[in-house]
Amino acid sequence: MNVSNEKVEFVNSANKVVGRITFESVTVARRVLTSQQTDERYTPPDLIAQVRRFMGRITLDPASSPEAQRIVQADHFFTKDNDGLSLPWNVSDPTTVFLNPPYNTLKQGKSTASIWAQKLLTEWQRGHVQEACLLVYAAFGYKWFNDLYKNLTSVVFEERLRFVNPDGTSDGQAKKASALFYLGPRRLAFTKEFCSRGFTRVEYPKLQIRQ
Fold it and tell me: In sequence order, what E strands does the chain have?
């Protein structure tokens, strides 16, 4: 796998590109991350409990807040003050990550979720992350999401999630469907755990890291 600020390429044993995920520049997201316009919605507690049961524990939530940690309860978390996009994520051994990134949309129509997804893949490629679950909107039709869906094991939730507001209330079901992507060695176990929630897809890419 070859990682740059713009794209992640998956290659096979013949060094041929078999998949590509394209992202916006990470430097753009750091400005958005500190914006007061960030639309904070926290992951439903029942989903967090299921993720924790599957992974055993969540050692890092890299895009979080003290309020969100009432639900996530990760061993370590980064906030907008210390900027998880600029820090390495190898906070423990092993590092298991749950990432529900901000859902801001930039003026150009680009999503900050795609930038956080790139950071996750970069940290995974560097060996800083052993397992991870990435929760994003099911943005079919957008290249960054389509590429994630084609290359990673996932579940697209049949029912729209009920995110939690900072004050603990909920506005009901989200307007968009959501998807949970998995990085790690236990792909079949992931689909077994989450298949009752929606439509699962298992990917077994024969990959190597291209230097």
Answer: 2-3, 7-11, 17-22, 60-61, 76-77, 96-99, 131-137, 153-157, 178-183, 198-201
Answer whether residue 13 shows pLDDT above 90: no
For domain 2-201, say whether CATH 2.40.10 is its number: no
pLDDT of residue 19: 57
Phi first, then psi: what are they for 153, rounded to 5°? Answer: -70, 140
Structural domain boundaries in the chain? 2-201
Number of CB atoms found within 10 A of residue 128's CB: 16
Which pLDDT score is estimated for 36? 33
Whose tokens are 């409990």? That residue is 49
Nearest residue to 23 via CA among 128, 136, 142: 142
pTM: 0.78
- The Cα 148–Cα 101 span in angstroms is 15
